[in-house]
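QA checklist item 7 of 12: single-chain prediction sanity check.
[x] sequence parsed
[x] length recorded as 165
[x] structure emitted
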Amino acid sequence: MFAKPISGRMTAAAEGDAVVLLIGMRINHFWGVHHWLPVFAAMPRMLRELSRDRSRGLLGYTLLSGSPRTYYVVQYWESKEKLYAYASAPDMFHRKAWAMINRKEKKSRQHVGLWHETYVVPEGGYESIYADMPAYGLAAATGVLPIERRGRRAADRLAHRSSAE
């Protein structure tokens, strides 16, 4: 949160495909706090659980707010297989949270909305630049490199292939 900026221009050290999950909620009725607060509280618990066991595949995440009603997380994963495995693992909190939400869904639906989008971006389909920034986003999840290692132009960075190094 209070990370020092890295001087100069950097790029993410990501190799291979990038798996990005956007997941969030929207508070439809603020007065239905007993419906949306458990949903709001579930995500930090899942992120703590994943952060304690890096073998589950979560590389990093960024918490964001789209408005006073909308909250979401950008997550970076090692692979879609690890994301699916976590989502369906019976011993992980996600399964318990999803079961709870499904039990309450008919009453809660009007008070809280849920969404997610998953993207598997092949190598060569993403690039990044961070100028005088702390590691952020994909770079916080995968590490940073001086921009010269991948190219000064976006087209050069998009052309990078990990097998070429």
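[x] summary fact logged: The radius of gyration is 18 Å.
[ ] second reviewer sign-off
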